[in-house]
TrEMBL record:
InterPro entries: Ubiq_cyt_c_chap, Ubiqinol_cyt_c_chaperone_CPB3. Residues 34-166 form the Ubiquinol-cytochrome c chaperone domain. Belongs to the UPF0174 family. This is Cytochrome b pre-mRNA-processing protein 3.
């Protein structure tokens, strides 16, 4: 089925669309207003890195060509980060150094989030979120619930569904209401 979908569209367009949906999920206002991400460049990177890491985690668990799609998604993210750094006025000489640092940070985040989710270790997930976002780990219960629900939902999707689903993440605001009552 995915082959017929890819024949209708260039594979790069499919991954670009997936990236736009993931980036849109990382910009949900509730993530910043209620769930602890600071509305700064660093906070936006953390939200994007978390969401891409969740998608990559799922893609790596699926049979090929999903691993290629995971790498393509990461490539698109870093192409967009490169563009954003340049738009913010980062010099041409500094961009490669910043990109190398961001790649290391992203790979570390991706590995640690995946390990906490695979171990179903909520205290560790909260601790990781607190390291990234500050405040005591206990303050990140709603965000941890959002991350776990997102991972659970993504785990239910096959490759075709993952590439085609319009909203691969649940609404973040739903977790604010549920955990604050």
């Amino acid at each position: 089925m995915i082959l017929s979908f890819l024949r209708r569209r260039r594979p790069s367009d499919v991954i670009e669309d997936l990236y736009q949906r993931v980036a849109g999920a990382a910009r949900q206002p509730a993530l910043y207003l209620e769930l602890g991400f600071p509305d700064t460049a660093e906070g936006r990177f953390e939200a994007l890195a978390l969401h891409v890491a969740l998608i990559v985690r799922r893609l790596k668990a699926l049979p090929d060509p999903a691993s290629d799609a995971a790498q393509d998604l990461v490539d698109v993210m870093f192409r967009e980060l490169d563009r954003a750094l340049r738009e913010l006025g980062t010099s041409d000489l500094a961009v490669p150094k910043r990109m190398k640092a961001l790649a290391g940070v992203f790979n570390d985040r991706m590995r640690r989030y995946a390990a906490a989710l695979e171990a179903d270790d909520e205290p560790e997930l909260r601790r990781l979120l607190a390291l990234r976002l500050g405040e005591p780990a206990e303050r990140h219960a709603a965000l941890a619930a959002y991350v776990r629900a997102s991972a659970h939902h993504l785990d239910s999707l096959n490759f075709d569904s993952l590439l085609q689903q319009s909203a691969p993440f649940p609404p973040a605001a739903r977790f604010v209401e549920r955990t604050s009552k």
